[in-house]
Write a structure and sequence with these properties.
It is built from 14 helices and eleven strands. The strands form two sheets. The chain has a six-stranded mixed β-sheet, sandwiched between helices. The protein has a five-stranded antiparallel β-sheet with strand order 7-8-11-10-9. With 391 residues, the chain is an alpha/beta fold. The termini are far apart.
């Protein structure tokens, strides 16, 4: 009934207002990623409701990925909603299939890369530091489950943060804000109904050959037969992981200065002090060192950290290549993490079909130099030999 809808509208507005305040984003400019779906449309209208109280400056951004004929109608819908709310907007266009082909990505990954690159560009153009997305509690549960299935550590189980720094090679100080993480998809749909709005429906969200869709459509309903509140259970797991991770970070910080020293292009660990630390502390400070050198935890996985720990207990002279151009060298008294600035360690594409001789040695032209080939082959072997565990 109407009173229930009014109460829901007030509750959602309070949650969004609280999320903005807790993130320290009052008086800021927010780029809002709007797809035209119920989550992003609800996000847009809720931010409009609180913008005067919180002195927010809003800018809508929509990217047409060039994948569906319906995207033209969706972009027009987003433009109409923005105009009706007197919100400036930017409509962008991309060739997702071309990007997928060039960089050998899944279609989902290619679309995501282009979407965030576009949002970053919009933020740069208007002088904003925050990109706001419509990720809901349901998205959070799916993310945690996805990481759990992949065998993620504590970092993966924490899920998405309400406010997190966006890792960009182009600029620093850019953040992703997710004010709907305490709000369900059903609530955003109900809010759109309350507003009398019919949001766009992306039929690609029904394709179960996309991993996230499969989790949402097939896996979570099956898990709900065992526990009807499985999403809430996953959120509790996330909170527990966050609590434990906070303690580990606090303890790791106490020993950080004792075990490391800086060297040109790298970080040096006192090997004996490193070995004495608990596995949890070792993993944390090694991960922290990797991030400080590479700028991001991207591509770093548990087996990398475990291998460094294993090598640290062995003979000097052993080396290990990590993703993103980071090399580990085991010395007599130290463990050294350093950047390999002289190499192009991430060739953009692998051309043609190449047979692997097993057992044996296969030469694959991953880049222009023999050293690049060695690095590329190591990366392939690492993926073949190790499970995809998120650090």
């Amino acid at each position: 009934n109407r009173s229930v809808s009014d109460n829901l509208a007030r509750l959602l507005m309070q949650r969004v207002e609280s999320a903005v305040s807790q993130a320290g984003l009052a008086d800021k400019t927010l780029v809002i990623a709007v797809s035209g779906g119920p989550d992003s449309i609800a996000l847009l209208h809720l931010l409009v409701k609180v913008r005067t109280t919180l002195n927010l400056r809003l800018h809508v951004a929509y990217l047409d990925h060039g994948l569906r004929a319906e995207s033209k109608q969706e972009s027009a819908f987003v433009a109409e909603e923005s105009n009706a709310l007197n919100i400036p907007f930017t409509i962008g266009h991309s060739d997702t299939r071309h990007h997928q082909s060039v960089y050998h990505l899944s279609l989902e990954a290619a679309a995501r890369e282009l979407r965030y690159s576009f949002l970053e560009e919009v933020a740069n153009n208007i002088g904003a530091n925050t990109i706001t997305t419509g990720h809901t509690l349901d998205d959070q549960a799916e993310t945690i489950l996805f990481h759990l299935i992949r065998g993620a550590g504590l970092y993966g189980l924490t899920g998405m943060m309400p406010l997190s720094q966006y890792q960009s090679s182009n600029r620093s100080g850019l953040f992703i804000f997710r004010p709907l993480l305490s709000i369900t998809h059903a609530e955003t749909q109900a809010y759109c109904t309350y507003l009398g709005i019919s949001p766009c429906l992306d039929e690609s969200n029904l394709l179960v050959d996309i991993s996230r869709n499969f989790l949402r459509i097939e896996v979570l309903p099956q898990l709900a037969t065992l526990n009807p509140k499985v999403k809430e259970a996953l959120i509790r797991l996330s909170h527990s992981a966050n609590m434990n991770l906070s303690y580990i970070e606090e303890q790791a910080q106490k020993v950080w200065e004792e075990v490391i020293s800086s060297v040109p292009n790298g970080i040096l660990f006192d090997k004996q002090l490193l070995i004495k630390q608990s596995p949890a502390i070792q993993s944390h400070i090694l991960r922290k060192a990797y991030i400080s050198l590479s700028g991001s935890p991207q591509d770093l996985e548990h087996f990398h950290l475990n291998k460094i720990s294993e090598f640290s207990r062995g003979r000097a002279g052993r080396e290990l290549s990590l993703p993103n151009g980071i090399n580990v060298t085991i010395e007599r008294e130290h463990v050294k993490l350093a950047r390999k600035t002289e190499l192009n360690l991430r060739p953009e594409k692998l051309s043609g079909i190449h047979a692997l001789i097993i057992p044996g040695t296969s030469k694959i032209p991953l880049a222009n130099s023999p050293l690049d080939n060695q690095v590329g082959i190591w990366s392939i072997l690492a993926e073949l030999m190790a499970p995809p565990l998120s650090a």
